[in-house]
Design brief:
By secondary structure, the chain is an alpha+beta fold. About 15% of the residues lie in helices and about 35% in strands. The chain has one domain: Ubiquitin-like (UB roll), CATH 3.10.20. A 5-stranded mixed β-sheet has the order 2-1-7-3-5. It starts with a strand and ends in a 7-residue tail after the last strand.
Length: about 100
């Protein structure tokens, strides 16, 4: 099984994410009490990130948490982003913007 490395720039950590898993699953495996842990279904916004680089696929999430305009600027929810390569992200969290 492939594993991808996701570097979280503003926390200076890297997590391993198995192929087919979302980024949040890798973060939770690294630290089960990480502040990104939330509902895991795209509705709460606690796992909001900004994608700096990498290839990925996404599943649907609440537009209240990440609008189409924000997604175009690189924002997403870690529970709905599935890496297809190594990635670099920043953790943002709920209701925060950089």
């Amino acid at each position: 099984m492939k594993k991808y490395i996701v570097k979280i720039l503003n926390e200076n950590i890297s997590v391993n994410v198995n192929e087919g898993d979302h980024i949040l699953k890798g973060i939770a495996r690294y630290n089960s009490s990480h502040k990104a842990n939330g509902c895991r279904n795209g509705g709460c916004g606690v796992c909001k990130i900004r994608i700096v680089s990498g290839e990925f696929e996404v599943k649907k999430w609440s537009k209240e948490q990440v609008s189409d305009e924000e997604f175009e600027k690189g924002y997403a929810l870690a529970c709905r982003v599935f890496p297809k390569s190594d990635m670099v992200i920043e953790y943002i969290g709920k209701n925060n913007k950089k």
